[in-house]
Amino acid sequence: MEIKKFSDFCDQVLPDFNKFLDNKLKTEIKQATLRDAMLYSLDAGGKRVRPMLFLAVAYSSSIKLDKLSQFYDIAGAIELVHTYSLIHDDLPEMDDSDYRRGKLSNHKQFGVGPAVLAGDGLLTQAFYWIAKSNLSTDKRMAAVRILAHNAGPMGMVAGQMTDITMENKVLTEDELTTLHREKTADLITAAVTTGAFCAGHELSKNLVQYANDIGLAFQLKDDLNDADDGEDSNKNTFPNLIGKEATEAKLKDLVKDALNAVLKENEFDKNLLVSFLDYFKE
Ligand code: GRG
C-alpha cells in the first residue's frame, strides 16, 4: 500500500479514469444528439466521489494501482447511474434546477425530452458496461444486484419518490433519515460494497456501517452548504427540520461512527478510507 491519502489516490487515478469514461461513451453511442447530451453531463466536472470510493476500496484490499483498470467498467457504471440521477433530478417536474455544477442543467441545454433520454441512456448503459466487463460472472452478478438494489425502486428511486411527493409536508426525523439514506446514501454504499466484492471479499459489517455513515454524512454536508447559500427553507432537509447547529453535530457523530467502524476493519488497509473522512471537515 503506497498511497495513504484519498486526495493523492484521486490525483493518481482520476485522469486515466476520466479518459476511459469519455472515450468509451464517445465510441459506443452513435446517435449524435444522444451522445452529446449524455457526455455533456458526464463531462461536466463532477467530483467522481462514488467511482473513486469504489476503486479506493479495491486498492485498499491490495489490488495494485496498475491493476485497477480491470474495474473501470464497474466504476464507470456507478458514475453513469449517478449522472443519470442528477439529470432527472434537475427536470422541471422534479427539482426544477436550471444550473448544475455551474453550467446549464441538461434539460436547459438540450430540452426536456432529450434530457430524459440522456438519463435513460446513461442508466441503461451502466448495466451494459457491467455485463460486458472482464470480471468473473460472480463479480458481475454481484455488481448488477447491488447497483440495481441500491439505485432502483428499493433505494435511490424510492427516496426520490418520497422527496417529490412529501415536498410540502413536514417529515419526522426518522422519515427524513430514511429518505436521505435511500436517495443519497444507498448509491454511495453500493460503490463501497461493490468495491469489496470485486476485490474478492465477502460483505463486512464494519465496511457497510462505514459506507452507510458516509452516505448520510454526504447528504448532510450538501444540505449544510445549501443552507449557507440561502436555499429553499421549505425543502425536506435536516437544517430545515432540526436547525443548522444540530445538523452539524449530527454530521460530526456520523463521521465519528464511520471512523470507529473502519478502525475495526481487518480485511482492508484503513488509510484511504480514514483519509476520505477529511472531505467532511473541509
Ligand atoms: C432522479 C431517481 C432520481 C434520483 C435523484 C441524487 C439525487 C436523486 C438527487 C440529488 C439531490 C442532491 C443534490 C443530493 C445531495 C447529495 C448529492 C447526491 C450531491 C451531488 O453529488 P456530488 O456532490 O455531485 O457527488 P458531483 O457534481 O460532484 O457529481
From TrEMBL:
One GO term (biological process): terpenoid biosynthetic process
SUPFAM superfamilies per record: Terpenoid synthases
Enzyme class of the recorded protein, top EC level: transferase
InterPro entries in UniProt: Isoprenoid_synthase_dom_sf (IPR008949), Polyprenyl_synt (IPR000092), Polyprenyl_synt_CS (IPR033749)
Pfam families: polyprenyl_synt (PF00348)
Keyword flag Repeat: no
Catalysed reaction, written as an equation: isopentenyl diphosphate + (2E)-geranyl diphosphate = (2E,6E)-farnesyl diphosphate + diphosphate
Cofactor(s) it depends on: Mg(2+)
Gene Ontology MF terms in the entry: (2E,6E)-farnesyl diphosphate synthase activity; metal ion binding
Keywords in alphabetical order: Isoprene biosynthesis, Magnesium, Metal-binding, Transferase
EC number: 2.5.1.10
Record's keyword annotation contains Metal-binding: yes
CDD domains reported in the protein's UniProt record: Trans_IPPS_HT
Family: Belongs to the FPP/GGPP synthase family.
Protein name as it appears in the record: Farnesyl diphosphate synthase
Organism annotation: Companilactobacillus kimchii
